[in-house]
């Protein structure tokens, strides 16, 4: 490989990680803003735990690795197969899939006490390359409508300062008449009380 090819691969990997961060934010936003716990299949397994983690942030940190990441792995495997079928396997798509598959882990690390986070993760968090506890904390404060991306600290400022998701919510409200779900940080009456 030449230096140019290596440089291009590094650019593709960085772009794949940022794209995965963006996708994690859009999915997290959809869950928060429009997800309903009574939806078939994803309601009880994805939406309900997400809503629960807003009023009890450490709940999902106690779940097993497979329980936290299983749905993402299934979706990632399907997307990887589709990419392979159309010949789209490259450094960008591999970085997108690999980084994206770990979105709940970086999110989990942002919720754990500092002493419970591996040292290499703390270094990455301190440099903004993994979602940090301090940065993600803004998502858990009123109005509970910012900092949705769960991989790094890099994409949230772009989405938040440009009001991208707020703009999409406005379009959804005007065009479809659908309001975003109100998040108060308190347990909604529709959510069952139980440990993960």
Q: What ranges have pLDDT less than 50 throughout 5 or more consecutive residues?
A: none
**For the residues shown, what is the average pLDDT?**
91
- State the oligomer: single chain
**How many domains in all?**
1
Coarse shape: globular
Task: Profile the largest sheet.
Answer: none
Derived structural class: mainly alpha
- How far is the N terminus from the C terminus? 48 Å
Helix percent band: 55-70%
Find the count of extended strands (DSSP E, 2+ residues).
Answer: 0
Q: Strand-and-helix sequence, N→C?
A: HHHHHHHHH
Brief overview:
This protein has 196 residues and is mainly alpha-helical.
What does this protein look like?
The protein is mostly helical and 196 residues long. It has one domain (3-176). It is 61% helix and 0% strand. The protein has helices at residues 3-34, 42-55, 65-85, 91-101, 103-111, 119-126, 133-137, 155-161, 164-176. Helix 1 (3-34) runs parallel beside helix 4 and helix 3 packs antiparallel against helix 4. It is globular and about 55 Å long. The relative contact order is 0.16. The mean pLDDT is 91.
């Amino acid at each position: 490989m030449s230096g140019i090819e290596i440089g291009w691969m590094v650019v593709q990997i960085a772009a794949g990680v940022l794209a995965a961060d963006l996708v994690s934010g859009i999915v997290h936003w959809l869950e928060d803003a429009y997800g309903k716990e009574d939806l078939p299949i994803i309601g009880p397994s994805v939406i309900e735990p997400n809503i629960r983690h807003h009023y009890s942030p450490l709940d999902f940190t106690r779940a097993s690795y497979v329980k936290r990441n299983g749905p993402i792995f299934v979706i990632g495997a399907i997307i990887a197969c589709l990419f392979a079928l159309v010949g789209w396997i490259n450094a960008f798509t591999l970085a997108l899939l690999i980084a994206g598959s770990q979105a709940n882990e970086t999110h989990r690390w942002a919720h754990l006490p500092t002493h419970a986070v591996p040292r290499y993760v703390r270094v990455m968090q301190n440099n903004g390359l993994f979602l940090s506890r301090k940065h993600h904390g803004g998502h858990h404060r009123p109005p509970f409508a910012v900092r949705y991306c769960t991989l790094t600290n890099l994409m949230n400022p772009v989405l938040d300062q440009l009001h991208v998701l707020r703009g999409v919510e406005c379009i959804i409200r005007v065009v479809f008449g659908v309001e975003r779900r109100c998040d108060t940080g308190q347990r909604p009456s529709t959510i069952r009380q139980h440990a993960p």
